[in-house]
Structure formats: C-alpha cells, structure tokens
Amino acid sequence: VQLVESGGGLVQAGGSLRLSCAASGLTFSLYGMDWFRQAPGKEREFVAGVSRAGDSTSYADSAKGRFTISRDNAKNTVYLQMNSLRPEDTAVYYCAGKLVGTSQYAWWGQGTQVTVSS
C-alpha cells in the first residue's frame, strides 16, 4: 500500500495550493481519508476529512472557509484545495486512510512540504 502526496511548495501569503494524495494497493473506496499537518516543533494536527463516498466532510476550525477536501474514487486520489494561505499554514501535510469500521489510521503518506511566506 502506498499513499503519495504531491502539490506542496512555496507560496506567498494569500495564495493557493492544491495537494493530491494518490493511493495504491488498497480498495480506496473503503477508506475514509483525512489530511493532517505538522509544523516544526508542534504536534501533528487534523486538517480535514472526507467520507468514503465523498458526501461528508469535516474541517478543523483553522481550515474552515479556506480549505476544501474532495476525493475521486475512480482515480484513487484525495485532494486538499487550500486558498487564502497564511504563514501559519506552513507545515508538512500528510494524508491518512482509515478503513471502514476501524478507529485507527491504517496508512499514512510520506508528507509534502507547504511553505507560506509573508
């Protein structure tokens, strides 16, 4: 199983990035998918989540109104559209998959760096 994130980079405050997480080796539609992030010296934190069918989403307060999570089960990919980026959004962003009926994340990606300059 692999989760491979992409789309990170350096962007100015107020800019946008779209992160992707491509999954392979698993039945993607059986997994709820979430995005987390970890800034230097801080704990990893939840950013956004999407249900298996993509019909339900949830967001951390810091992401509401600026970030949008979505998924394409035909492409085994989950996305995080990030708009109005702030310097405090600077972090390594990870995707993670939770199998239906379980409470723990089964798979994590390796992360992609997002750096927002002021």
* Gyration radius, in Å: 13 Å
End-to-end span in angstroms? 37 Å
Shape: globular
Main β-sheet description = 7 strands, mixed
Structural class: mainly beta
How would you concisely characterize the structure shown here?
This protein is mostly beta strands. The chain has strands spanning 2-6, 9-12, 17-24, 31-38, 45-50, 57-59, 67-72, 77-82, 91-99, 107-108, 112-117.
Please provide a written account of the structure:
There is one protein chain. The protein is mainly beta. It is 0% helix and 53% strand. The protein has no helices and eleven strands. The strands form two sheets. Strands 2, 4, 5, 6, 9, 10 and 11 form a seven-stranded mixed β-sheet that branches. The N and C termini lie far apart (37 Å). The relative contact order is 0.32. The model has no long low-confidence stretch (mean pLDDT 97).
